[in-house]
Amino acid sequence: MEKITLKIDTSRKTARISPEIYGHFSEHLGSCIYDGIYVGESSEIPNFHGVRRDVIDAFKAIHMPVLRWPGGCFADEYHWRDGIGDKSARPSTINTNWGGVTETNAFGTHDFFDLCEEIGCEPYLAGNLGSGSIKELMDWIEYITFDGKSSLADERRKNGREKPWKLKYLGIGNENWGGGGTMKPEYYANEYRRYQCFCKDLGENRLYKIACGPNAADYNWTENVVKNLDGYMAKGISLHYYTLPTGTWEHKGDAVDFSDEEYYSTISRALFIEELIERHTDIIRRYHKDMALIVDEWGCWYDVEKGTNPGFLYQQNTMRDAIVAAINLNIFNEHADSVKMANLAQAVNVLQALILTKDEKMVLTPTYHVFDMFKAHQGGELVFSEFDVNPECEASAEITGGEGMPKVPLLSKSVSVKDGRMLVTLSNCSLSEDAEVSLDIAGFDSTADAGAGSLKASARILSSESIRDHNTFAAPEAVVIRETPVTADKNTITIIVPAHSVVSLSVE
After folding, report:
1. What is the tens place of the pLDDT at every residue in 238-289?
2. Active site residue 175
3. Does the CA dihedral 115-111-124-207 come out positive or negative?
4. Catalytic residue among 103, 122, 175, 381
5. CB under 8 Å to 394, separation ≥6 — which residues?
6. Catalytic one of 20, 274, 297, 381
7. Among this protein's residues, is 297 annotated catalytic?
8. Which residue pairs, CB below 8 angstroms and at least 24 apart, start in 248-253?
9. In the chain, which stretches have pLDDT less than 70?
């Protein structure tokens, strides 16, 4: 067993962890919206205005801070007027990006904003720059946010919403380097400049505008977009990065039936997001000191589950995904000075989902449980932490995700303090090596009742016998959070972090 010391100095605060780092993404893709989030008001499944009540409760339990909609690729073919008014009179359209299925438009603007209000999260709209128009986006913003007298505001009232909603986050376009228009960065930058000019603050509403950023390591896109935007035009720029076990889109690997080598390749490729964040941030900072990085699509992407529609992107979710989620969230926390939002792809039934549904049944995935364990980081102050040693995973010494991908260290971590409590999150990436981690803590004022200068600690763990373990509708609690022992004295806390596990440690 490796014995490792994690040195923590809570007097060295480095950045506030934006709650929106723990954000999510819902697209009209497969059964994410229909039969996942939305079942309709006439459904026998308990619902709130057609949205599954159990899904809402699960979102609330992890303190979901922000939800992105309606895409994704779907956004740049979405015309918001198709999704308002009498549902029986709404036009049917084709979802050309995801399976060529009929889009009924039953779930639209009112449904989404009412859902966000019920959850208590910020809505994040992806605006249609690809096939839409400036006027269409202007009108949508007015319809949503204007409290005065206008035809669009009156139309909203006629459709059942008297007061405007709050809209903070607005993405102008999605993946415009690809399915959103196959644009060159210079052309997109000019289009963004035009569009954002007409996306205006109305009344007390204030928009946080986000430009379409790069796909993974496309540094040329970042350079040529940000240098052509004046600072006030965009508060943030997006980054999309998916973890592919094999590194190829043609054969991405199975979600459950994977080798140890594929596991380590997956973890290596997940870790690569740190280099992407650092390099894209360096480019952004050369032009804009305050522009944020918005990682609004991230997660694992595997081959679809056998027997399902290949355009629906349905996949299972194992302990491997939990390790990937913990790695990503720890990295986002550690870069909280630049990363201000991140959105896991996707919330329900698609890619690395939080939740799987089937008829009246619902399953919380291992990834969901990681978000539950990490939620107390939201709004906390990131503090200095450093391992004395962090060896590479023994079995992975010769395995990476390919050329340029990092080696896999034993542990990942992040530490924050909020309201007199410290949260330490750790994941053990090894398939075979346990770790004994001792926390050497300085600068922390204990609020425990155990006595002056003492520390009170509790810990939770997500682990399973096999890295391939996952929750199913027949066995929904195969992988769940449990309490785990921890020892504490005046300045030091010690905990065992078993192989392929995730631990959250609360100290007060």
Report:
1. 999 999 999 999 999 999 999 999 999 999 999 999 999 999 999 999 999 9
2. yes
3. negative
4. 175
5. 430, 432, 433
6. 297
7. yes
8. 251/303, 252/301, 252/302, 252/303, 253/302, 253/303
9. 395-398, 446-453
